[in-house]
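User: My collaborator and I are trying to settle a disagreement about how two of our proteins should look. Neither of us wants to argue from intuition anymore, so we agreed to look at predicted structures for both before our next call. Could you fold the first one, then the second, and keep them clearly separated?

Assistant: That sounds like a sensible way to settle it. I'll keep them separate. The first protein:
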Amino acid sequence: MGNYISATLIKTLKPKDKHYDVRDKSLKGFLIRVNPSGNMSYVIQYWRSKRMHIGKVGVLKPEKAREKATQLLGLAASGEDPKNTKYNYRDTSPTIKEFLEQDYQPWVEAHNVAGDEAVKTIKRHFSGFFDKSLDQIKLQDVERLRTKLIAEQKPNSINRVISDFRSLFSKALEWDVIKKHPLSDLKTLKYDDTRVRYLTSAEKKSLMSALETREAKRKQGRKNHIKWQLDRGYKAVSAFKGEEFSDHMKPMILIALNTGLRRSELFAIERVNINLKDKMLFVPETKNFKSRYVPLNKTASKAMEIWMRQTEHLDTPYLFPSPSNVKKRITDVKTAWKNIKAAAKLVDFHWHDLRHDFASKLVMAGVDLYTVQRLLGHQDIKMTMKYAHLAPDHMKSSVGKLDLL
């Protein structure tokens, strides 16, 4: 049984640890969403799992909300999606927090391989705006925040942060939740994007040595723990086999160096998309929403094979599941990566530079830029051209052909 949504009912609604819905007993599909923050909004649920905000409790009176809900549910009943109408939401725009958690987050996590990271970025940097409605955000608000970030982060990192927030409004505009994009005139920060950082022979040797040392220490620590358990009569966990990895870091780094995958793509690898027989990896969805096949060399395929065998007992679809929940993929390796870099004494080398190393070594080995573009999943060849200077012999031989004329 439902409740009749009214001012009297609203006074009785209290926030809980998790959001919950209160449905109207007389108008099917009309409900109130109560958030843990105490904020409440009027919502309609139409068709199967389609929802749309129609106003904020406290801004819109329940009678007016019911009137609008009736109108929109009527459109849905006639086969027209209410979100595609020219309905005016200016006085009923949801808060950024409401729109993020109830609409944008489910969509971006389902359609973007790095969607969960985008949501985390928005929550980390823009939570101060969460109580504002979507149509209250001004360009100056974001400009002010970006100015603060300039002292802490590099321009390209700041651009990515702003891009994640901007995308939220782009989707709100597409869904007709807002009538104007508040950040449409916000220009990206300019920076030198030609930086290419790759490992020298000495640095790669140092990185591999650091990984081996880390492996040995972790395995010895596990053996010591097993001995401690056995000495006290406890049931010990299985010891590592000679070829097994101590955790996900070494296979992950080896695969990154030998495939050029973006971090989000690497984290999201699913076992079903790995073909060890043909040494091929299918990347179903990328940053550019395009799938691609990535061939696996001996190093990458061996690392995958060992790690898959080592973790085959886990009930997970992912090659690198989250240590805390194997049903989900891993999302962060910052601490471990920081320690490995320190041990290897790598200066000004970031995780993304593993991808640069892959591309740079290919170009230096004489692989043409078009092939490198396809392997990296670059949408535009201009993005791949930053590696062109690493093929000096090829360019010299090209210019040398003029001597024959």
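The second protein, kept apart from the first:
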Amino acid sequence: MPLIANIPDNASFTDATVLPLGIQTAASCLFHDSTLALEMPPSQGGMGKTLLIWGASSSVGSCGVQLATIAGYEMFGVASQKNHALVKSLGAKQAFDYNDPNFLDDIVAALEGKSSVGAFDAISQETTLHTICEILHQSGGKKLITGIAPGIESLMKHDVTINNNFGSLGSRAIVD
């Protein structure tokens, strides 16, 4: 299946080549039934629900922030401090710096009283996944993480389920 996307006016063709992959990867992590199963835009079904995205300033994470925002979800993004303005400009309500020694407690406090739908880890390393497991375990919301690497399911901690988007990408049989 060909993937296409409009190239922003301020982007070169070379720089924009990653856009369809970022959009497809983020969409498969957010909206497919085998991942977070969020409601797709333009439904606005996410109104009143909060999503955490780790790697919110990465190519895939930034696509995820925009897609989930369009679907009506309140976005919390995790990125370095230097990228907070970018993450907020994409739609994140709050941005948290993973280098801040208090960021885990700050995210848990920010999620208090929210209807959390889980997390999307656009980085999907052991340290990021374990930290998100801890955040979701302490926060009391939905205990589900979707990431972008095969085998991450083995990194589950506490009562949090981790899955990846590889089942959502599917395959198409070629029939003569």
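Some points you might bring to the call about the second protein. The beta strands are 49-54, 74-78, 92-96, 115-121, 144-147, 161-164. The chain has one domain: 21-166.
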